[in-house]
Amino acid sequence: MAKRVFITGIWHETNTFAQGRTGLEAFHAYQYLEGDALFAAFADTNTEVGGAMDAAVELDLNLIPGLFAGAVPSGLITASAYEALVRRSLELLAAAGQIDGVLVHLHGACVVEGAPEADAEFLAAIRRQLPADTPVVATFDLHANLSDALIKGADALVGYDTYPHNDMGERGAEAARMLHRMLWSTRRPAKILRKLPFAPPPQVQGTAAAPAAAIMAKMHDMETWGEIWSASIAWGFPYADVAHLGVGILVQGDDIAHATRVADDLALTIWRQRGDFDAGLISVEAAVHSAIAAPHGPIILVDVADNAGGGAPADGTTILAELLDQSARDAVIVLCDGQAVKTAKAIGVGAMFSGNVGGKSDDLHGPPIPLVGEIIFQQPVRYRRRGDYMTGQQIDLGEIAVIQADGVTVMLTEEKAMPFDADHLAAAGIVAEAQKIIVVKSAIAWQAHFRAFAKGEIYVDTPGVCASNLKRFTYTQLTRAVYPIDNDGVWPATNA
User: What integer pLDDT is reported at residue 154 of this predicted model?
Assistant: First the structure.
């Protein structure tokens, strides 16, 4: 008889330095699904749920849908929103009847008002509602800030292996296979977590390039060693002011001594190379000048500090101002500015737009910039992702307005556009490959698509809540020195 597996998840990458709060409406606006709608939305998608669904067919697991709630990375989640999501998930679990196992899909860097370890608390709440021997397996993002409480909350955990993230489906399937292994035996893996006093910025966490690529290759080789179930490196999310900030290495296996040796080896390898993860940035003026002077494009100007996928508002104006000042040609930039979109919608396509754009969410990412240009596109935009990241995911950008200001094309959106592919540009009639300069509000995720045709890339030293220079932030919850926030840290730790 097929085992009955409850599947649920809450996903949010919380930037505690971002202004504003993330309420329940943010989850409903981006991704809120429960019951059969969850299966309909995630079927044939490169997501953890989609991967688990595919594996369940092969393994003869009967998946029982709970809810999946995800919000675009942003500021602290309100306590009321989190409580509502947990309460509803537990209601669906109770209504599911007898359950043999549970799959939980998390981020690992979710922070709630009064709850710095919200992911761990969610697992604990699920665990309390289950018989003691019910196996629970969870997935987590590569940017998770792992903690002892999170690891304790599940019988096994599986983390993403790639950044840009393109293996979510594989990790969801791996979690389902791991759960299946537990369901048909009494075996549970020993779990060894090593936390390093090290928090590299996302800009240097890319797993396809040095220095992370060789470390990930070493980890994958170690996973093939006898009695190891899985290994994961969570490179951490440095824009969360939490005590458990930093890189975490999780190794799971039958032999606790062997798993410990693997975890310690990986931890020491990373620690010795920490200086290789220092970020290199170029001033805004120099970056725009270099992009204009390049013989061929597109040149990607990476606005790291205004990373739409890291909790920033995606309305930073410092690069736009410089593009206009230097009279750039064939340049495109996307700003989240619902107020400006509303103004453009009121006057219509073909009219001249004159008003301030961007810089309205806070005073950290540059001031509003006066913009004059023709409105060449205006309508609501929805599309399905075709790139490697969350292939098939439905995206709603709300109303869109595209302003042509001489040689600079400014795409204004109601909702944040995370540039994991160029589909958002294409939906507004902009051909990415034809541009000389493309500004992406991202750290590394843009590489999965744009790098295939880009002729160059420049990481720009812009201000904002996702700045790669972590010394710009004031951390109040750290009780230990963490590199590079501090000049150094201590490793091996006394409890290693």
Answer: 98
